[in-house]
Amino acid sequence: MREPRVAYFPDSFHEVNGVAHTSRNFVAYAQRHGLPFLCVRAGTREISFEQVGELRTLELERSRTSVRMEKDLEFDTLFWRHSGAIRRELERFRPDVIHITGPSELGMFGAYFAWEMGIPLAASWHTNVHEYAARRMGWLTGKLSEHAGATTERGVEAGALWATSRFYQLAKVLFAPNQELCRMLEQTTERPCYLMQRGVDTEWFSPAHRTRAADDATIVLGYVGRLSIEKNVTLLTRVQRELAAMGVEGVKFLIVGHGSDEDALRRELVGAEFAGVLRGAALAQAYSNMDVLVFPSHTDTFGNVVLEALASGVPAVVTPDGGPKFIVQDGKTGFVTEDDHFAASVAELVRNRARLGEMRQRAREYALGCSWDAVFDRVYAGYETAVRRAPAEQ
User: Fold this and answer.
1) Is 1 contained in some domain?
2) Residue pair 60/248 in contact by the 8 Å Cβ criterion
3) Kind and range of the H or E element at 165?
4) For residue 182, what are the CA distances in angstroms to 123, 157, 254, 275, 357?
5) Which of 239, 269, 241, 240 minimizes the C-alpha distance to 255?
6) Residue 47 has what pLDDT?
7) Beta-strand (E) ranges in the chain?
8) Residue 210: left if φ>0, alpha if ψ -120 to 50, beta else—which one?
9) Is residue 279 part of a domain?
10) Cα dist. 230→114, 137, 370 in Å?
11) Less Cβ around it within 10 Å: N or C end of the chain?
12) Cα separation of 391 and 195, whole Å?
């Protein structure tokens, strides 16, 4: 079978999040292997088309009426104005598969044109939208009794999962970053699901970029990601308090990222360094100068930052929920533990520098086995299922 012609509609591309990071690497993979690939994405110019070899890019500007979902992510209610440009490019490119990454305006257009033009649709799940929706009801549930609040959150989560699953049911084949999510999607959509994990550049993220003095005995606890409620970042302040209560000294927090909870963290996380959003060499250096990544999220579907930390020789402490637990080997490259035991896990590494050194080495060794080529080779194998199913269902 020839390589399929893929039209890819990512929710985000230039932003700082897991979808954008994966999408940039997907485009690079297609270009590296000379694959026929069209990326339709939101950008900063009204309409911009570029072609380099077999790679085509259609970039479309979001309007000023866009609704802000995050500091760096918007939903454009007037994106329909670009429908003619998208249709013309799809007709020129003649894709075998249209791939969307979620129910954004890009995803909705991709799903619509797949239906209108009779092209098989593939969809990848990158964000636990249902869990995010429930966490963000805190403004309401916090005013209710504990029972009523919990019941409301469960109802919101169940409703959001039902609605999102109906959208994903439009696809012929699905992708998700871990087996747990694949099983959930197969049950709720009755569609086949394949792994679409994430890789890491182990030359870019490497212990070689560490610039701290060899005799610096401070243990730097790092966090990288959005500073918002669904990331459970308030646990960081609890970890700091509990470490102090244990008599653990010589510890400092380095926080990379921004978000709605940043002001509260700046007030409560004593002595922490807030580096803001970092990219490129600055981000690689920040990772390598950490000693332990403290990542308290319960909602991440994969955890790019966890894999980047491991590649940098930094063990991670993560929760037993979501995707990071599939990356961290408990007791070898970090700890997988409940919120109540985060501080104790960190304290173990602060007090046992020999074990910390062993974990740093094992973390790096694990990351060396992860590559973007292996990730996207599996995605292309999954496309074959979508292409085979389409004629059979017509």
Assistant:
1) no
2) no
3) helix 146-168
4) 12, 18, 34, 35, 35
5) 269
6) 79
7) 6-9, 37-43, 47-52, 55-61, 67-70, 73-75, 97-100, 121-124, 173-176, 193-195, 219-224, 251-256, 273-276, 292-295, 316-318, 334-336
8) beta
9) yes
10) 32, 10, 27
11) C
12) 24
Domain-located, residue 112: yes
The rounded distance, in Å, linking the Cα atoms of 90 and 99 is 13
**Given phi > 0 = left and psi -120 to 50 = alpha, else beta, which region is 306?**
alpha
135 Cα distance to chain centroid: 17
Same domain, residue pair 140 and 254: no
State how far the Cα of 37 lies from the Cα of 255, in Å rounded to an integer. Answer: 37
Residues 193 and 326 in one domain: no
387 with 335, same domain?
no
- For residue 156, CA distances in Å to 149, 161, 166, 344 come to 11, 8, 16, 33
Specify whether the CB–CB gap between 168 and 104 falls below 8 A.
no
Residues 355 and 325 in one domain: yes
Domain count, the chain: 2
- Report CA 198 to chain centroid distance, whole Å: 9
Question: What pLDDT does residue 133 have?
Answer: 47
179 within a domain of the structure (yes/no): yes
Q: Is residue 272 domain-shared with residue 163, that is, in the same domain? A: no
Sheet holding 251-256, edge to edge: 273-276, 251-256, 219-224, 292-295, 316-318, 334-336
CATH number at residue 46: 3.40.50.2000
Verify that 11 and 45 share a domain, yes or no: yes
For 339, the domain range is 207-367
Looking at the fold, whether 185 and 278 belong to one and the same domain comes out as no
For residues 318 and 243, state if they share a domain: yes
Q: What is the pLDDT along the chain (394 residues), one digit of tens a residue?
A: 579 999 999 998 998 788 898 999 999 999 999 999 999 999 876 778 899 999 999 999 988 877 776 656 677 888 899 999 999 999 999 999 999 998 889 999 999 999 999 999 999 987 745 454 445 555 455 666 776 666 666 665 666 677 788 899 999 999 998 888 899 899 999 999 998 888 999 999 999 999 999 899 999 999 999 999 889 999 999 999 999 999 999 999 999 999 999 999 999 999 999 999 999 999 999 999 999 999 999 988 888 899 999 999 999 999 999 889 999 999 999 999 999 999 999 999 999 999 999 999 999 999 998 889 988 998 999 999 888 765 545 4
